[in-house]
Amino acid sequence: MRSYRGKIYADDLVETIQKFKNDISDIDKKLCDDILVNKGLFIMANSLFEESIRELMNIVLTSFPEKLNLKSITISKKQICEIADRGYKVILEKELYSIFREGVVSQLNYLIEIICGIKVKDIDSNIKQIIEKCYEISLYRNALVHNGGKVSKDLYGKAKYYKPINQNDINFNTTMIKNFIFDYESFFNFIEKEVCKKFSYYKETTRIQKLKELWYRCFNSPLLIFENYWEIDIEHDLITGLKKCEKEVSLSSGETVYLSIWRHQYDDSFNTKEFLLCSIDYSIICDMYNVFTDVKFYYMSQEAERLNR
Fold first, then answer.
1. Which range of residues forms the domain containing residue 236?
2. First and final CA of the chain: distance in angstroms?
3. Residue 87: helix, strand or coil by DSSP?
4. Contacts by residues 12-18 (CB-CB < 8 Å, ≥ 24 positions apart)
5. In Å, how far from its chain's centre is CA 162?
6. 227 lies in the same domain as 132
7. DSSP-assigned states of every residue in 57-80
8. DSSP-derived secondary structure letter, 269
9. Does the pLDDT of residue 290 top 80, yes or no?
């Protein structure tokens, strides 16, 4: 995952959308004249849509938990233990559960707001229509799951774009489900377009920028300024050496460990500090090695030596 606290890259969001498109395309190809098969495929398509919406929300809210709807959050004793185990994702899961209980329209409006920054009143009329259609599709899903495939009162009374022909059994034919899939894809096409306009791509970010972002996720101390610790070659997008800094005596134990890992990964003649698991943040360690691998950090000193030669 390339999105971090306070930072979202388009890559994570677009990958989720592309996966949805690929999977929904496979479902579309399997539609046939067998109504029973089509019912199963429709349920799969609906579940896939919901799961993808949830994943997009999770990416955004993990990076920006301040976008949570709730101004105050009640946490049970059980959740306190879970938070100690799994961090504030426990709170996000609770929030997502609340959002999904409110129904499809609330979900999609909320997603548009947290990703695109567009309030409900400002959503384009065409997108509002797609959202309404997605809501009606959810009524078909409920009728199939909870009403034995017969038209429910909700469906017959509320559907406008996909009004049932009669109040009997629903004919889950290929044409109807293809229309449903088209609406799902239309919504995700809109989200993808907005994502590409609003967020930069991780793969287009320079190595130095990636390392600087990682550095400031590791270190909160004002003493730890990236440029004070590293020799930087902007032209070659490269760290060419380490700087000595006299202010390290004021670092916390965790920061001392992280700094030693940085130095050791760049130059293995520097030893990594011994540490207790309780003194470090596991997620930061994972971030470090993911970015180090991505930018080939441990080869930078050799690359710098070749340039000097």
1. 205-308
2. 37
3. coil
4. 12/59, 13/56, 13/59, 13/60, 13/115, 13/191, 13/192, 13/195, 13/199, 14/192, 14/195, 14/196, 16/52, 16/55, 16/56, 16/59, 17/52, 17/56, 17/188, 17/191, 17/192, 17/195
5. 31
6. no
7. HHHHHHH-GGG-S-SS----HHHH
8. T
9. yes
Q: What counts of helices (H) and strands (E) characterise the chain?
A: 13, 2
Domain closes at, from 168, 198, 228: 198
* Integer Cα distance of 207 and 233 in angstroms: 11
- Please give the Cα distance from 146 to 143 (Å, whole number): 5
Residue 279 is given by DSSP the state G
Cα distance between residue 308 and residue 291, in whole Å: 25
Taking only the tens place, the pLDDT of each residue in 206-235 is 999 999 999 998 988 888 899 999 999 999
Same domain, 56 and 138: yes
Amino acid type, 237: D
Least confident interval from 212-226, 231-245, 248-262: 248-262
Q: In the 8-state DSSP scheme, what is residue 89?
A: H
Are 194 and 209 within one domain?
Answer: no
CA separation for the pair 169, 284 (Å, rounded): 54
The tens digit of pLDDT for each residue in 133-180 reads 999 999 999 999 999 999 999 999 999 999 998 888 999 999 999 999
For residue 156, the SS3 value is: helix
Determine the Cα–Cα distance for residues 157 and 209; give it in Å rounded to an integer: 55
Which pLDDT does position 246 carry in this prediction?
64
The total of structural domains in the chain comes to 2
